[in-house]
Design goal:
114 residues; 5 helices; two-stranded antiparallel sheet; mainly alpha; 9% strand
Length: 114
């Protein structure tokens, strides 16, 4: 692994590969740590509502992690309960339009999109 340092404005910064940074700070990459998508049945069909919930959950988790936030931080910034974020990320609940808009705005304000 190649490491380097930069000095910007009198402050030293360590430069390292992004994957190493993600490993160090514990950000899951790719499929790791995300809820699994529903398995297709014998005909190759997946339950639409379950698929939509899990797909949204995975996108929300990835966006929250890119922001570097916990579920509690996203909930606080979005003005919803932590339990609400948790249930959405587990794929147990589908957020209504108002809740989704709040969470989306909080992430957008942080420069992250869902």
């Amino acid at each position: 692994m190649a490491l380097g340092t930069l000095t910007i404005g009198g402050k030293r910064f360590v430069v390292l590969p992004e994957k190493e940074y993600e490993r160090i700070v514990g950000i899951a990459v790719g499929e790791a740590g995300l809820p699994p998508l529903p398995e297709p049945d014998a005909d190759g069909n997946v339950p639409a509502i379950a698929y939509a919930r899990i797909s949204l959950a995975r996108k929300l988790i990835a966006a929250r992690r890119r922001a570097g936030w916990s579920q509690a931080e996203l909930a606080r910034r979005g003005g919803v309960r932590t339990e609400t974020v948790n249930r959405i990320e587990l794929g147990k609940n589908t957020p209504d339009e108002k809740t989704f808009a709040k969470l989306g705005k909080a992430l957008k304000d942080a420069g992250v999109s869902i």
